[in-house]
Amino acid sequence: MHVLRGGHVESIHLGHAAVVDASGRLLSFAGEPHLSIFPRSSFKPFQALPLVESGAFLRSGLGHDALALIAGSHSGTDAHAALALSILERAGADETALACGTHPPFDEATAAALRARGEAPGPLRHNCSGKHAGMILLARALGAPIEGYLEPDHPVQRAIFTRFAELVGEPWSDGTPAIDGCSAPTPRMPLTTLARAFAMLAAGCDSSGRATPALAEIRDAMRAHPVQVAGEGRLDTQLMRASPRLVAKVGAEAVHATGVVDTSMGIAVKVADGATRALAPAVVRLLIEAGALDAPSRAALGQVGDETLKNHAGIEVGAIRGVVRLRRDLP
Amino acid sequence: MHVLRGGHVESIHLGHAAVVDASGRLLSFAGEPHLSIFPRSSFKPFQALPLVESGAFLRSGLGHDALALIAGSHSGTDAHAALALSILERAGADETALACGTHPPFDEATAAALRARGEAPGPLRHNCSGKHAGMILLARALGAPIEGYLEPDHPVQRAIFTRFAELVGEPWSDGTPAIDGCSAPTPRMPLTTLARAFAMLAAGCDSSGRATPALAEIRDAMRAHPVQVAGEGRLDTQLMRASPRLVAKVGAEAVHATGVVDTSMGIAVKVADGATRALAPAVVRLLIEAGALDAPSRAALGQVGDETLKNHAGIEVGAIRGVVRLRRDLP
Questions:
Q1: Which of A163, A230, B1, B69 is the most buried (most CB within 10 A)?
Q2: CA-based nearest distance B270→chain A, Å
């Protein structure tokens, strides 16, 4: 991705991309498609899988908006925080059970409102509070203590990692997980594995092609409630609103994965330096190159992925342009 | 530069570096030392040169702390803002003359104090307000209107660009300047030219070896008043406090240049993707590799350039490490 100033390249963001089908075949790529990466929050749809398969989500009576929030990285609006709290309540818990820490809401208007009334953001505002609430609900379903739900050997985390290994049916992890921004265990895997997992999410099946209804349910919850997966003005919400074909999830340090529902294709990208500003230009360009974004959907995205840079005085000084060339030979 | 999570590389920042002597000889390098880059704020010591050489700075009666502010990117503290205003007053102007726009002060305590009292930051808080005040003082000295002082063909800008061309005595510009974050014209030049300019700044001479006292004065003002060049907790202030050998200046999009006074060496680096988080690890490692930072000075820097990453819950999750290998063969 090129960061331009006055028409000249000022900075460059390199990236890696993998496009695969549900059988794991690499259709096209850029950079190093087998690079080991941390999916970070793009792992969330799969962290939600044991909760749905346990039947606990159905028994909770929660709606699919809550499931989208569990699989999402929300903006910390009042609505997002209230929805996260409603999940905790089904587990007989409240926000004091959340071990995710806190940060100011991504939603700027909400952050400004909190500041204006001198309110420190609580853990419900953390973009991962839905995921954590889902983990706490799973702990209850498993008869496990809520305390310690983020420990790698807690039944919740064991269920998540074991199920994901079964799902992808290929060696993928390279050792003990690291710690995520929200303190949850976070795995490392080849970019191709992340892409393949999203192909399975799109297809609603596992690596052997067996139907996996819980995965299809998570996929459809995300597509039906894109505002719970991210928030207004954010990439995943915009992508899923622009195209009914897509299920999309960002991760920190500029990771992104997309499943294309009608073709069961999985597309994953990592901006090598982790820069968020390069992600929308990279993803939109990549989806076009991979044939996952048709002209009407691109048009619906408007300026997304085609950023203009303005300075403090509001003068346009440059732009960020997505530059993606997919190769189809073997890496 | 490696961004680590749990001991594994999560993201990588590539960079380019050039180490030259005052004659322009390339002593060592990394990446592409002749790459054209925008020096951005690392150009400020040279933007101050015509003001000093015109005699207007001496006549103003301002101290060398003000000269350091003119050549610096300050943190917008009350002291910084007051010093910038004092420069404007010598030009018979006030902050309404500043065309730099505004942003919240870099200094977090100052930014919090402004927010707490509901005060919108004015242009004096902009990190470039010292430079702009110096340009306005030069406009007065040249008998030119203050209005339009940022236009590329205004006498102030013509004086700056013409003088820099004379100083470096080599072809360096590749066309019309772009627009900086503060709306000033901002040139593009090879990384080697920026490094050489800092070798000259360190030596206080021009490209033919002729003494350039105004350049030496700017150099010594920066070294004597490092807190005016940046601010508490910021790289240039820390570097110049840690070592009396160095004159150092950062630029936006992760550019940095250092002059080594006792050896008249110039060192410039550009992190390719423009990431500020990689800059201190890159600069500190580069200065060590180039022999510009001895052990006591490195010790005085403490944790600077050796960053630990913590998550929202305060848990240590990773680190950023400077990785620099200088080559001495021809690029």
A1: B69
A2: 9
Phi, psi of B5 (to 5 degrees): -130, 120
Model confidence at B174, in pLDDT bands (50, 70, 90)?
Answer: low
Measured between alpha carbons, how far is B327 from B331 in angstroms, rounded to an integer? 8
Under a CB-based contact definition with an 8 Å cutoff, are residues B273 and B254 in contact? yes
**Cα B228 to the center of its chain, rounded Å:** 11
Q: Are strands B316-321 and B306-310 parallel, antiparallel or unpaired?
A: antiparallel
3-state DSSP assignment of residue B167: helix
Option in A6, A126, A273 nearest B312 (CB): A126
Whose tokens are 């950079």? That residue is: A31
Helix, strand and coil content of chain B, in percent to the nearest 5, comes to 40, 20, 40
Token digits of residue A78: 């009042």
pTM of the shown model: 0.92
Instruction: Provide the token pair at B80.
Output: 């910084």
Which segments of B130-242 are extended strands (E)?
A: 178-179, 185-186, 189-190
Cβ atoms of A68 and A80 within 8 Å: the answer is: no
CA dihedral defined by A102, A107, A110, A114, rounded to 10 degrees?
30
Q: What is the Cα A131 distance to its own chain's centre?
A: 11
Burial class (CB in 10 A: 0-12, 13-18, 19+), A329: exposed
From the list A5, A99, A174, the residue facing B178 with the nearest CB is A5
> Could you say which of A36, A37, A311 has the minimum Cβ distance to residue B181?
A311
- pLDDT per position as a tens digit, A171-195: 777 667 889 999 999 999 999 999 9
Give tens-digit pLDDT for B18-58: 999 988 899 999 999 999 999 999 999 999 999 999 999 99
ipTM for the predicted complex comes to: 0.91
**Window 151-180 of A, Cβ < 8 Å to B:** 174, 176-180
Instruction: Please write the tens of the pLDDT for every residue from B97-107.
Output: 999 999 999 99
CA quadruple B52, B55, B60, B65: dihedral, nearest 10: 20
Residue in A with minimal Cα distance to B4: A178
Handedness of CA B277, B281, B283, B284 (dihedral sign): positive
Nearby residues of A242 by Cβ (< 8 Å), 6 or more positions away:
A293, A297, A298, A300, A301, A304
